[in-house]
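Exam review. A common question shows you a sequence with its structure tokens and asks you to describe the fold in words. Practice with the pair below. Do the first one on your own.
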Amino acid sequence: MALALLTACASTTPRVSANLDSYERELDAAHYSLSEFTVGDGEGAPVEVGREDFQKALAELARSVPFSAHSMESARQLFAQEHEVEFLAQVKEGQVVWAVPLEPGSTARPRDWGSMTRNYLQWCDQEQGGGDCIGLLEDGPTLRGDDLRTLGLAIALGSVLREMKSALVEAANPRALLLSAVWSVGLYLLMWVVPEPLTKGVAAMVTAALMAWLGVDTVWRLMTGWVDLVGQADSAESFAELGQAGGRYGKVLGEHVARVLVMVVAAALGGTAARLAEKLPRLPGYSQAAVQAETQGSMPLSMVVEVESVAASPQGSFSVLMRGRRGSGGAASSGARGEAVTLIHHQGGNRQVMIHGQRWHVPANRSVKDIPRHDPVGDELQAVTTRVAETWSPARLNQAERDAIRDARSQGKHWLAHLLEREARGRYVHAQVVDQFKQVRWNRVGVDAIDPRTGYKYELLTRSSSNLARHGRRMAEELFRMVSF
């Protein structure tokens, strides 16, 4: 359902030619549809969810969440398969007790963990009635590592955290449910602190639902604000600094946004994608969210279960990949031209197709039969590009690139540092391939290269969901092979 909202980017449904032959129709039935949402283009605004409705919904959701004596671990398991981040983990007696994402070049700052822990317990006394109120000491006597991020989030939630505690008071295990919800929200948000932010499966459905309830611009602020909080929490040397960081993110959230965030993630606790899809229509504000999704041009919210992944680009856009429903579905069977599968069906009717082990972009007015059966020049170009990409390392950065990346990290903008390094890698690969591959004509505009003998076109690009989506949109009218690295 939520996904629908994400798919909103598609204001028109993909065109299907009535003249497709049986092979084309079979290929078309195996498609995925991709929609893109750009920050600033949406008209959506957060759906307001009042305190009473929020607490009623949370109490209802609590009845379907299985009890877990290990709240942090169950929260990690919820999105365990969604993480694409490389983590540094501390293991105790065979169990992971904490994990933090590795940041190249980052260094941990010294902290007085004893003082930080005492201040945390004082905060619990003031805000939650005492004790280890959000379970940060379940894995040891003092705070450590990712505890600071979760504590920063709890501070940001403010009064909504107190509303949660009140709503769950009659639940069988109120504290366990509260901890599972808080940790799950934090782990979901952590998925966006990566070079190529991507959510898949249940997490992708959560993202789609949030876009329906909150609007594209608010979700973007929610995520970029969290990236800032993570950087500030990692560098905080005192509880006061952490409290200030949490307070700033609390202003980004606001009560209504915080309630929606907690509510949607809580709906995912202990369930599958199908069960989440069943719960969403019962959440407060669903009707308004459904209307907002339609206003933004998306498919019905009831289609959220079809969401495959949601990728975000640092430039300010979301790409939503959704399983196709046209035809009988499934992968296309082998035909006279070999097995072919439509990987992405863009809203304009253009497609990205995998055939003969090659990825091609096919315009809406062209057929997959226009793709050459044999492309030795393209095969060699792909091989050269792959070899060159394997020779890349940060040691190849020039001084200007190193300075820019260092400045970004010093400001806590780790996403920008990753982006700058990725762009440097792309420039390196492109320059090296151009220098080593002289048999094609290289262009400054349009597709990167053209084989002068055959007219076949090639585009070099990094193999990321957001980049593949952008290239398909930017050159929708061109037939070209996608040479990725």
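Now try the second one, then compare your answer with the model answer below.
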Amino acid sequence: MGNKYIVLALLVATIAASFAFPPDIQLLFQEWETYKIQYNKQYTRAEDSLRLKAFVQSKIQIAQHNQLFYEGKKSYFMGVNKFSDMFLSERIHKMGVTYKVDEIRPKGVPTFISPNKDVEIPAAIDWREKGAVTQVKDQKDCGSCWAFAAVGSLEGQHFRKTGKLVSLSEQNIVDCDTKDYGCGGGFPSDAYEYIAQNGGIDTEESYPYTAKDGPCKFNNETIGAIGIGWEETRENDEEDLRKAVATVGPISVLIYAPPAFLSYQGGVFDGSSCHYHMINHAVVVVGYGTTEDGEDYWIVKNSWGSDWGMFGYILMARNKNNACSIASYATYAIV
């Protein structure tokens, strides 16, 4: 038996004791080799053993969680993906910097004006169906979620104003917004301010994404959209956020995404593992609805590629006490 088999056997023996039918070691090893090919993972011999350990731990945690899902005790299920060979500390780092909501929310009053009472707010809406949402993108190993969230909202607003869906450049913001920290983090509101002061933002095609910080290469001859500012909804008010999504379009939000978030694959993420009043990730709400079982949800576009979650999307719990702080800091671009 090779060293990998010994490592795997010891690991399974120690952390899989709670299973009535322990995982098959040979099968797990085969899955590990297939996983590395699927996600183009290449490791040294020493690192391979560590990554194998993380992978097996992820597999067991996913199996335990999904058992609860099948028993009707969880509203979402998990699956293996490109993050499954990461340790907990790496998953937390992947989320970015963690802030308390009160530390980052600008002082002042919300600027979103709620529609008149005679304006009918639909029970469900999905801006993807209306052509206001570009393809799912991938921020890769760069903490630029804030730029992707801002761009996602602006793309929707530009579409609503012009009827044209244009993929805009996150890299333009990462490189040129000097108020924030590029791959080190930032806030959508700052990105909106940069775009307004800059006189626009380049297209994705003219200023492609590199997933790393670089010198500013903005070209005012290849502007894809113009923004003149931003608005925000009332803090912690999911009904205000719902009205904004219904009447304005895609809205950027800051959320707290726990480690379990990375393994999400389907269903309504209930927020039970979230730390409330904390944020560490930025995403775009592109709609909302209710399941046949009566669970309210937000349709959320992430920036981890289409091979994560539900083709790059996640359904997050709605009307559950602001789960994962989703309504704590919601903003959108003005065009």
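Model answer, second protein: Residues 3-74 form one domain. Confidence is low (pLDDT under 50) at residues 17-21. Full marks require stating both points clearly.
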